[in-house]
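Need tokens for this chain, all 415 residues.
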Amino acid sequence: MQIELGFGAGTQTLTFPDKNLLGVLTPNAVEHGLTGEDEVRRALAEPIGSPRLREIVKPGEKIAIVTSDITRPVPSYKLLPALLDELYAAGAKREDITLVFALGSHRKHTPEEQKKLAGEQAWSEIRCIDSDPADCVHLGATKRGTPVDIFRPVAEADRRICLANIEYHYFAGYSGGAKSIMPGVSTREAIQANHSRMVEAAACAGRLEGNPVRADIEEAAAMVGVDFILNVVLDEHKQIIRAVAGDVTEAHRAGCKFLDALYAVEIPHRADIVVVSQGGAPKDLNLYQTQKALDNAKHAVKKGGTVVLVGSCKEGLGEKTFEEWMLNAPTAHSLIERIGREFRLGGHKAAAIAMVLEDAEIYLVSELEPEFVRSVFLEPYADVQAAFDAAMRKQGADAEVLVMPYGGSTLPREA
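Here are the structure tokens for all 415 residues:
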């Protein structure tokens, strides 16, 4: 068996005996019709659980369109032309429409970044602004105690439309749907209250029913009110291959079902060794981003097994709070204890890594200095072959191996 794995701007090659291979997890072959903007227009014309948007919006209403920020792969510039045509068909005027970039806890955009995200048409025709956690309206609290504090232009709009892409989220189950509201246009305090439930067993990738984080998100969004969503599923090349539009829950669930058909990969059982890559740049620039692949790989490795995590991480750990937690923890387990008593964004990813370490070793193939890697409880390697060979020595000559070349996208599920 020989396979190329993405690593930074290039690849690394792994070779091992065929007899050890349990499987290579790549996206499933799924039939689809239209793609790109054509698929977006089809979805808008065939909404799920809702009338067409042009039948919902009335002339003179103030409309807030909430979309993702620069850290997400949502191709807003491909969604907005069709969406604006639908709004204009309803009689909406340009001056009544505001595009809000949902920052969550992330930094503000530059005007150039806003223009790139919005695209030429939206940038020239409607108001485009970042959400601001300092300007929110308090709408109460969820039954779990999460404050529902929403960016004023969204809270005070007559109509709210949410754009997103749907992919697996390691504790909210899936991205998209109501997640545009919470955490999208919420305060840091609200986000922390919601995300603190990530340590519960039911808060995991690919799970909606009984997921306490997702349930809290959707309760918060229902208190605000979402009139319509337009969500897309992207292939591994970031091209739109399915769009869903309509009701915030029904349309989202339809998108999740398609995502599962594409990216949920069945495995016969867990493996002794899982080799997982984020797929290369820009997804593996730092450990904060590379962790996404690790969190999917945890569903494929046996207790006591080894994960070989392949990611350049040439920019280091990638986030200040994440770095502070990782570098100051006396033990990996202490991170789990800390997140239980003191939830902090950034620290949550440190705890997520520690949760994997409870059951498996992690060999990190990166550009980071070996001593630095050891200081964050991982075993350092510069070469995937060397890391794999070490894992084989640990697990034995008959070790079974699963390979995940697109670890951030593929979710292993036992048959």
